[in-house]
Structures are given as structure tokens and as C-alpha cells.
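testing teh design pipeline on a random one, pls ignore if ur not involved
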């Protein structure tokens, strides 16, 4: 049954707009703000690409045409095309309630298998030596624990155990929790950072500010939790911002771009010629652990990989040449 909407911008009194319905469906499933923004953006592009036709009036041919356009005309990466497909699938399956037998014939894009960029130990030392303050602490924590960028930024006070030297990563990739290591050398700096966060927490309390964002509608189940110290950010932002979903002014965690810029600047200053991202620190953590003799299963657990085959990719980037093979030219001992 087709909805009463006949264009993305039209709505009947009894039927909300299509994109509003999709937004509600996303939030009911507790998807992140990033996913919400991405999915809505792709659906808008899909509708505009087909001249503002309603998605209920389109099918597999139109989806294929849009995905093909992304590759042939826009030259997007496979991961980007996969994201667009995921958004369209969500629209048809979870918003319009349309059966999708015609999508069985769509060729899903395959992400190319590429080896991750890994810094050697000397490069890591040079880069980290050029980073100080909160950015330096976060960069060291990412390399020392193997956390992803957003996992680090979203850390709550209650999930850092300085005595046990461990960090509980909540709702990581795949919505899974895991425990990872807290480096001994970061216990004192992290304790100092928590004192700084405590000062901001008490300032917000004194000013009557709203508590921090709570995941999975926990603010309704535990109304006072968002204003408690345990749920406060380990790395809070210096200022306040407007919650994009509720319009409430509250303190969020630090923005990811500031750390990304600081790390890239340090890498350039350190003379690292390869493209370095924050995720490079996670790759380096895994590779250096493997190189030091740590077993692959433990590394898998620390990284939060569902399948050990994902972790095995680091066996191919160890600093031992091409698969540990000695070149036959070296065996000749010829020097010119």
C-alpha cells in the first residue's frame, strides 16, 4: 500500500512527510546522529536523481541506476556506494514496508581489500613527541589502547578504571561492549584530565545546565543519570552546544576534527610521508602487539573484532619485509 505522500516535500494531515517518517524510524532503532544524517542525505539524493518521484513508485531499476551513477559518474568509493545502498534499503524495508525481492538481483559493491597504514615504533614516538595537552593524551590513549576515535571521545568517567588499568568501551562498532587496556604511563595524566573534567562538571551543575546526552533513551528511564558525575565525559568540550535532536543546550564531548588536525600536523612535522589518520594509531597498536609476540585472539578481543580473520590482516603488515621472505639478491652478497 502506497503512502499518501506524492513528493518528498508534501504531506497530508494524517500522514507525516516521508523524511520525517524515516527520521522517526531511525531514532526508534537508536541509530546515531551521524547515521541519521547520512541516511537522510542519501535518500534525498536518490529522490532528486529521479526527478522527485516518490520512492514507492520506483523499484530495483531505479536503485540500480542510482548506484551505477555513483560509480560511473561520481566515481565514489565502494564504501560510499555501500552506505548509499544501506540507506535506500532502510527506506524501503523499514519505512515504506515494501518487500524487496527485486533487490536480490542488485550487485552489491565489494569493498577492496587494502592493507592498513601502520607507523613503525620510531615514527609513533616522533609523532607523539610533537603532541601535548589533551590532544597528546588522546593520541597516546588511542595508540596505547587500540580504541577507535569516537570510542575515545565518548568515554564516560564510570568506564575508566585507573586501579585495574582498564577501559570499558561501551557500544563500540556493532553495538558491542568490550574491555581494553589502559596504559600504565597514562594513569597519572588521565587522572589529571579527570580533575579538569570534574571542574567543568561542577560548573555545569552550579549553572543549572542540562546533563550530558544519554544513549538509548536512558534519560527517560533514569532521569537524574545524565547529571551525575559517572556519566560525564572524560574529554568534555570547553563550551556548550545545542543537541540536534532535542534542542537542549548541554555540554558535549570534544569534537573529533580537532584531534584529527592535530595528529596530521604532528605527522607532517615528524617527517612521516604516508597519509596518517587517527585510525592509523589503532592499526599501529595491533601490529606492534602482534610483532611483540601477543597472541592473535587477545588482540582480536582488545580491538573488538567479531571475526579473527579481520585481525589477521595485521600479520601482513609486520615490519619483516614481504611476508618475512629474504630476497635472493641479498643471499648473493654482491655489493657494488
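output:
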Amino acid at each position: 500500500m502506497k503512502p499518501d505522500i506524492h513528493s518528498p516535500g508534501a504531506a497530508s494531515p494524517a500522514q507525516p512527510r516521508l523524511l520525517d517518517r524515516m527520521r522517526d524510524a531511525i531514532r526508534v532503532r537508536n541509530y546515531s546522529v551521524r547515521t541519521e544524517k547520512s541516511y537522510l542525505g542519501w535518500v534525498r539524493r536518490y529522490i532528486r536523481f529521479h526527478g522527485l518521484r516518490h520512492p514507492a513508485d520506483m523499484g530495483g531499476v531505479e536503485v540500480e541506476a542510482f548506484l551505477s551513477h555513483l560509480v560511473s559518474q561520481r566515481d565514489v568509493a565502494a564504501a560510499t556506494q555501500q552506505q548509499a545502498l544501506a540507506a535506500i534499503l532502510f527506506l524501503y524495508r523499514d519505512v515504506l514496508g515494501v518487500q524487496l525481492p527485486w533487490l536480490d538481483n542488485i550487485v552489491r559493491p565489494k569493498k577492496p581489500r587494502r592493507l592498513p597504514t601502520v607507523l613503525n615504533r620510531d615514527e609513533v614516538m616522533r609523532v607523539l613527541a610533537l603532541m601535548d595537552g589533551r590532544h597528546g593524551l588522546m593520541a597516546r590513549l588511542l595508540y596505547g589502547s587500540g580504541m577507535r576515535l569516537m570510542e575515545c571521545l565518548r568515554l564516560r568517567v564510570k568506564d575508566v578504571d585507573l586501579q585495574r588499568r582498564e577501559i570499558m568501551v561501551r557500544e563500540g562498532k556493532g553495538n558491542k561492549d568490550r574491555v581494553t587496556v589502559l596504559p600504565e604511563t597514562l594513569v597519572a595524566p588521565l587522572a589529571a584530565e579527570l580533575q579538569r573534567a570534574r571542574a567543568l562538571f561542577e560548573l555545569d551543575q552550579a549553572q543549572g545546565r542540562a546533563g550530558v546526552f544519554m544513549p538509548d533513551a536512558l534519560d527517560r528511564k533514569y532521569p537524574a543519570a545524565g547529571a551525575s558525575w559517572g556519566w560525564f565525559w572524560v574529554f568534555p568540550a570547553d563550551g556548550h552546544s545545542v543537541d540536534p535532536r532535542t534542542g537542549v543546550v548541554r555540554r558535549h564531548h570534544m569534537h573529533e576534527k580537532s584531534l584529527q588536525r592535530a595528529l596530521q600536523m604532528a605527522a607532517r612535522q615528524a617527517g612521516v610521508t604516508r597519509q596518517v589518520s587517527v585510525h592509523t594509531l589503532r592499526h599501529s597498536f595491533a601490529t606492534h602487539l602482534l610483532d611483540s609476540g601477543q597472541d592473535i585472539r587477545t588482540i582480536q578481543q582488545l580491538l573488538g573484532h567479531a571475526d579473527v580473520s579481520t585481525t589477521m590482516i595485521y600479520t601482513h603488515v609486520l615490519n619483516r619485509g614481504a611476508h618475512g621472505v629474504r630476497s635472493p639478491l641479498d643471499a648473493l652478497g654482491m655489493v657494488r
